[in-house]
Write a structure and sequence with these properties.
Number of strands: 10
Largest sheet: 8 strands, mixed
Distance between the termini: 25 Å
Strand content: 35-45%
Helix content: 10-25%
Shape: globular
Order of helices and strands: EEHEEHHHEEEEEE
Length: about 170
């Protein structure tokens, strides 16, 4: 397990908060629903997130050690604003499998950051019934649940988006 002993939240020049994670082990070719169960055991069997694994097929096999940056604001924000920041950083958005790996390795991440609830968002979006959706993973109390929300929803300061790479 890659538990963060003392996660360090830093503020970037662009006003984002960042938590850097190095060497996060991502099991690339794990069955989609097994990955969900390992990361977010309270996810209902009927949840839409369980039906979209074919959209996030592994691009390699085995385990990869990935550097991820968790980014957030201290205010409400829109998905488009997060995407603009991702574009400026020139780093790819993390895929849901990478977000699942964070939660699997750090099941109490929200508590380590002093938050009662928090969400990790993947801006590797998908379409469902003509609506653009964002995969996410929520932490709260002792629970972790994977799901999805509409792209055009607003997000609050408990919602963090994840990119691949090290944000400076």
């Amino acid at each position: 397990m890659l538990l963060l002993p003392h996660p360090k939240i830093e503020r970037t020049d662009s006003g984002l908060y960042v938590i850097r994670l190095s060497n996060v082990p991502v099991i690339n070719d794990r069955d989609w629903n097994q990955a969900i169960d390992a990361a977010a055991p309270q996810t209902p069997q009927c949840s839409l997130i369980r039906k979209i694994g074919h959209l996030y097929s592994p691009c390699r096999s085995g385990v990869s050690q990935v550097t991820l940056s968790i980014l957030g604001f201290d205010r409400e924000f829109e998905s488009q604003e997060a995407q603009r920041h991702i574009h400026k950083l020139k780093l790819p958005a993390a895929n849901p499998r990478q977000i699942f790996a964070i939660a699997e390795q750090n099941p109490t991440l929200h508590r380590m950051l002093g938050q009662e609830h928090m969400a990790l968002l993947s801006f590797k979006t998908f379409k469902y019934k003509r609506s653009l959706c964002v995969p996410d993973l929520w932490f709260g109390g002792n629970d972790r649940e994977a799901g999805s929300h509409l792209f055009y929803n607003g997000w609050n300061k408990r919602c963090w988006f994840v990119v691949v790479g090290n944000v400076r």
